[in-house]
Specification:
two-stranded antiparallel sheet, single chain, eight-stranded mixed β-sheet, 21% helix, globular, alpha/beta, 5 helices, Rossmann fold
């Protein structure tokens, strides 16, 4: 029986940023230190993943857990859906990388995955979902999901059998997004774990896997630990409980 791992390497996806400057190196990979600090606080070792689709397979076999971070919008033209005028799309190389990484992680279902905001949306579209591209076109309460405003979520019955069942779903979460997932399509392995009061999908999982969770809020910026830091703690604990494979 393999020894449980004590130092968990957590891959954290990065933005690709084109930074205008006199220097010849403009394109930079970056991730918010709130993600790395949350992983460190949970006892993990953060590893920033440079967005290169050719490295997706190698990364999937290197890391003990994965955090897919927030960022700009998904380019829906990839699936033949026109962009909303309010969309600000992520760098195409980042989108290609993270979709390739999710495909690689499908081959390693024992490795825990946490998708945050954009990360949850990518998990959704990777499994056949589609996007609400601008909440303000659909919800009078759309502003409640921006500027890290704290708001409650309502768990579904699936929450009780999920990998995050022990977390207090009654806590407030911090969100900053203008897009959201449409209702999940029939036949997807994903299930909804929580909604907001206005019906936005706030959390989902794949119950076939030990820990494969997406949340629409930003736990790395959520003040209440119950749905903030403890989500990263749960990710690390799930990785520690997974035998080396």
């Amino acid at each position: 029986m393999p020894e449980p791992r004590t130092r968990i390497v957590v891959g954290i996806t990065c933005d690709l940023l084109d930074v205008p400057q006199p220097a010849p190196i403009r394109l930079r990979a970056a991730a918010g230190t709130t993600y790395t600090q949350a992983v460190i606080n949970a006892g993990g070792v953060p590893l920033l993943l440079v967005p290169d689709p050719a490295l997706a397979h190698a990364y999937a076999h290197l890391i003990d857990a994965l955090v897919i971070t927030g960022g700009h919008d998904i380019d829906t033209r990839t699936w033949g859906t026109p962009l909303h005028p309010k969309a600000t799309i992520m760098h195409p190389q980042r989108q290609a990388f993270e979709l390739a990484l999710l495909a690689a992680m499908d081959q390693r279902p024992h490795v825990p995955v946490l998708g945050v905001c954009l990360g949850m949306q990518l998990i959704g579209v990777h499994h056949g979902g589609s996007m609400i591209q601008h909440l303000h076109d659909h919800l009078p309460t759309a502003n409640d999901h921006q500027d890290d405003r704290a708001h409650p979520i309502t768990p579904t019955v699936a929450w009780a059998s999920s990998a995050i069942a022990k977390l207090d779903a009654g806590s407030l979460v911090a969100s900053n997004h203008h897009q959201a997932l449409d209702p999940l399509p029939a036949g997807t392995p994903l299930r909804v774990l929580a909604h907001s009061a206005d019906g936005v999908i706030e959390a989902l999982d794949d119950p076939r896997k030990p820990f494969y969770v997406g949340v629409q809020w930003h736990p790395e910026r959520t003040a209440e630990a119950a749905l903030g830091q403890r989500l990263f703690d749960a990710l690390i604990n799930a990785a520690k409980a997974t035998p080396q494979a």
